[in-house]
Amino acid sequence: MEKRVMTDGKRRKGLVAVAALLGGVLTLAACGDDAGGKAGAGNGHAKSQAQVDKAVAEDASDARIKITPEDGANNAGINNDVRVAVTGGKLTDVRMTAVASGAEVPGTMAADGKSWKPQGQLQRATKYAITAKAEDAKGRGATENSKLTTVSPANSFIGNFTPEDGSTVGVGMPVSIRFDKAITNKADIERRIKVSSTSGQQAVGHWFNDTRLDLRPQSYWQAGSTVTLKLDLDGVEGAPGVKGVQDKTVTFKVGRNQVSTVDTKSKKMTVTRDGKTIKTIPISAGSPENPTYNGQMVISEKFKETRMDGSTVGFKKKNGKGEYDIKDVPHAMRLSTSGTFIHGNYWGDDSVFGNVNTSHGCVGLNDKKGGDDAKQAGAWFYENSLIGDVVVVKNSPDKQIQPDNGLNGWNMTWDKWVAGSALS
């Protein structure tokens, strides 16, 4: 009896162990059963997970955020490239920060909450991070993150322009743009630069070289007109891998029409304003050895007083010093890049003006040391001249000034000027 009882106990334990083992095998088989035949427990688990996934999908926000440029972008423009927009909802918060410094970029949200953009210009060669949040009509939220790097100075260019925004200039003032890198895609760049005038005059561009573009009308600007320069260069490729970073509008006003004619033979200058002669001034132009250029020259700079050193413009003595070095030339106005000025002269005798040409190529007007005598010819002409006024020199034994020597493109026929446009 005891032996049989013990045997039955062991047998029962063995059956339990076998059942457990078989249960484990069956359980493993059920987890791996893709057919779903008899694996009831596995089917129930898969069904519940699918329901969860469906519920999550149904609860997702309808708001779809798009950040431009795309995440990881390099060489992004610094003016208009960056934008955050949303469909199916409204933006609730957008934060843009410089990664290195953590400085936040101020931005502007559209009134309808559909878009956001940075205020002002971004920094070049800077990495930025953007986090944007939005909600749909049911209040369900959505978030997007992105990083971008703006264009570097090595891969971008700017155009330094004249005249200045808000200035009043003479009728001969062209728009002159000097690019800080060579431009090879000239047509693409010129197409994105617009000059318009309230006078209706059409300005055409002329490339003097790979870095200089001037724009002017066929004849002088009309007095009293307003001229607008639009530089729409942000993101435009000026050369392979080199993009523009400017989006700028410049406006300047054209003053009265003043043209002054210097006759080196009679040694007099006639100042004409709006078609009427307002003053005749005795002058002293370049000597026979150093005559003044002929041609139409535009005043590009004005200095109440400046130093003139002959060594800087090629007039050197054997010891390397200049043939002249005057530290306080009054009322000097630049007519050429190479050093031609019309200026006050206090060191010459009064008898020189109107009688003898004695300069190294400049046009001299009688003046007083210090330039504080308003009655002197030099002082009067300075006070009555604008940057952009035209000074015409004639009857000089020298050649005509080159159009690119200063702002002097008027010394070129209109046909040749137009031929220098990349759009011609």
UniProtKB/TrEMBL annotation:
Signal sequence, renumbered to the chain: 1-29
Q: Which organism is it from?
A: Streptomyces meridianus
Tell me which PANTHER family the record gives: L,D-TRANSPEPTIDASE, L,D-TRANSPEPTIDASE YCIB-RELATED
Name the record gives this protein: Ig-like domain-containing protein
Acyltransferase as a keyword?
Answer: yes
Q: Which UniProt keywords apply?
A: Acyltransferase, Cell shape, Cell wall biogenesis/degradation, Peptidoglycan synthesis, Signal, Transferase
Q: Where does the L,D-TPase catalytic domain start and stop, copy by copy?
A: 258-394
Per the Swiss-Prot or TrEMBL record, the active site comprises 343 (proton donor/acceptor), 362 (nucleophile)
- List, alphabetically, the Pfam families matched: Big_10, YkuD
Query: Annotated pathway, please?
Result: Cell wall biogenesis; peptidoglycan biosynthesis
Keyword Cell wall biogenesis/degradation listed? The answer is yes
